[in-house]
Amino acid sequence: MPNPWLPRFDDGVVSFDRGWRFPTEAEIMAARTMVTRRLPMRHQRYYPAPVGDQIVWLTNFMTKLPGHETALGLTGAYVDACVASCAFLIYVLKDWLPAVRTFNLAATSATETLAHGEGPSALTLPAFAAPALPDGVVAVPPGVLTPRLFDLVAQIKKMPGYTETIGLDLGIIGQEAGVGGDGGAGAPYVPVPKFKVTVKSTVAGPQVVLEFIKHGHTGVYIESRVGNGPWEFLGTDTNSPYTDARPLQVAGQPEVRQYRMCFWDKSEPTNDWSDIASVTVGP
Question: In the chain, where does DSSP find H-type helix?
Fold first, then answer.
């Protein structure tokens, strides 16, 4: 049976060694305590706000993820756990929550009848009957979205086998920026860093200067690629600007460099990637 606890890749609470080792109550409480000490998880651009759209997103993600298991280098155990968590959240959003709201109307009506109604017989209060779990769906611990599912998505985007095609298929590429809190009341939520790229000539050779805005975060996490090469980690920086002083790959030959950033907090990258900026660097 799939493990109902969807673990982080670095989560020591849950392990798999010829079978799942489930966390004890003490371990669960300790894990929850650690989660509360993290920075608040901001809204993910790829995850919709309307409940109906969330059900569609979760269904697509849990259906498509097994097909990308090999390409992303995920284990079957992680995929099964993810599917189990998504399935239970779908049940809660689609079946249980509407039933609770319908019951709430019945309970309100019964309360009004009891308080102000008429009749000789004792009032029978309505009893709530939760919808049955669909076949194969099991209850899971709290934290399906944050930290577990959103953390998994962040890890997926760093996998060597991850591509934009996979991201679009899974629905984990945001199409537009959302709005919400960014540390100040009424302040606009900025989901990704904004930065400007310029090239300057120096005695040592050309340098690329990246001017960025942190928007209250610790710093930025920067990746770059040359031409159609792979994305590579370039560095982290807590103060703008960042200077890329790498020499040309082929001396005397111009090259196109691309850059992208995400925010960097508590020694790890957070949120989604920024737009890609391209610049030609030459002698």
Answer: 25-36, 51-64, 69-72, 76-91, 97-116, 150-156, 164-170
